[in-house]
Amino acid sequence: MADASFLITIVNNLIKIDANGSILWEREIADINSIAPTSNGYILTSISGPILRYDLNGVKIWENQNLVNQFANSISDGNIISMGDTALTKIDGSGNIIWQKQIPRVYFYLKFSSISQANDGGYFLFVNNSNLLKTDSDGNYST
Q: Is residue 63 part of a domain?
């Protein structure tokens, strides 16, 4: 972060500290699974709960209860891409679903470990920390 602060998670707490280790703010959030920076805050996913968006000051901007996802990441168009057990979802900056694509059934048993945007606008889905799936920019996957 440009302001030399850091986010850390301890048990069910999200804590922002400065370069000297002083706590700037702390929020109680259950089961944090992933944190992704955005241009003006953070996207959080939890193991059993919604996707959350917080601003840089730790104020919750929105919460999408309809999406339970393992990972989320901000993408080049300012939107968010998220990966759940069965679907890849593109979300706008307000938490609304733009599109949602089902993952081929053969991959349901896999544990997705991260997601990132490819140079061509598609998405890389990292599976079991050793396999890679690639989609196009609309989330379509072909075998």
A: yes
